[in-house]
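Chapter summary example.
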Amino acid sequence: MTPEVFTVSRLNRLAREVLQQNFPLFWISGEISNLTRAASGHVYFSLKDDAAQVRCVMFRNRAQLVAWRLENGQQVEAQALVTLYEARGEFQLNIEGLRRAGIGALYEAYARLLERLEREGLFAPERKRVLPRFPRWIGIISSPQAAALGDIITTLQRRAPHLRIILYPAPVQGDGAGARIAAAIMTAGERSECDVLIVARGGGSIEDLWAFNEESVARAIAACPLPVISGIGHETDTTVADFVADQRAPTPTAAAELVSAGWFAATHELAALHLGLRRTMLMQMEARMQRIDSIARRLLHPGARLSTNRQVLAHLETRLCAALGRRLRREAVNLERAQARLRQARPALSPVRATIGLLGQRLGAATRRRLAADDARLATVTAVLAQLSPMATLQRGYSIVRDRHGKAIRTSQQLAAGDPIELHFAQGWAQGHVDKIG
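The structure predicted for these 438 residues follows.
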């Protein structure tokens, strides 16, 4: 039997299926190296130890859940699936989760909470609320002593000083901070006295920011009837509250800029509209003034206008006469030049006429000789055709025998007794049957 021949695609697909079936989800530790971030948001890197390395891919929906910025040289523990990238036949790990090696419990709790809340749909884009473009009352949940609160107030005073601020004080770190933050969020939602709510804190370690990773805070944000902006930590810090909030700002200052963006943009738009309106009005006024000047210039005394028109007419007449004179002189010069060229180019016709007459005589003689030769040749060909014509043969007493299909009979072997035949003579034809063949 002929052995089965695999295609490369089928081989890679089978290898991938074997790997995925025999290696369930597991944890692996190693050092990150060769890290690259694609424009799609996917992250590609290698995990290595002292003796080996393996290629890894972390897709965007998983990479955005990592609470810190991945860098080469970091020691991590990864939750992975073994697979094979069929297009290139490369063995790789699909990373489902990451935690810093050695930190352990906090990251595990963080990852578990993220996974559970994501399954419940708290991170779904369709549940995110749109921020109001022109809010009037801004609620802030932060510590009164926090530098983040001062940054927010300073930014709002600079960009939109007319906005009213309501502070819902709550500690932002330490024991019980998460419950106090959740209670402040619920209080703001129940009072409904502001248009948008900012949950803010400055940067810090994962332990410092842990209050914003607690489930009670996440569920309070999800249940809040007000749009919520999270402005927690520095740009590289990511908490559970950031994923649940309707909008994440990288810093508290950025949160203030985000909430005042509509007013700030409107201020510039208003200035641009004011400038455009002013320019339009000036243009309209200038156009009206020019029109008035034009009308004023046309309001002349009839006598003055007639005098002006006479001067213009006289000037035009002078110019017309001068132009006509120049044109006539130029055309006269052109005519003289053309006549000179014509005299130089006029051919001598007498020799040409003599040559044409001689050529005509020679052509007539040649034509008569050719016609006589063609007549003689035609008579010869006609005589030969008359001798070779079948009708001439029939005139000498011969006839043509044809079978029922009209085919000429040349030998008796083409016929059989009883076959119908046709006889063609010089004049007329006859039908008959074959009685005997010899």
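To summarize the output: The domain at 128-259 is CATH 3.40.50.9100 (Rossmann fold).
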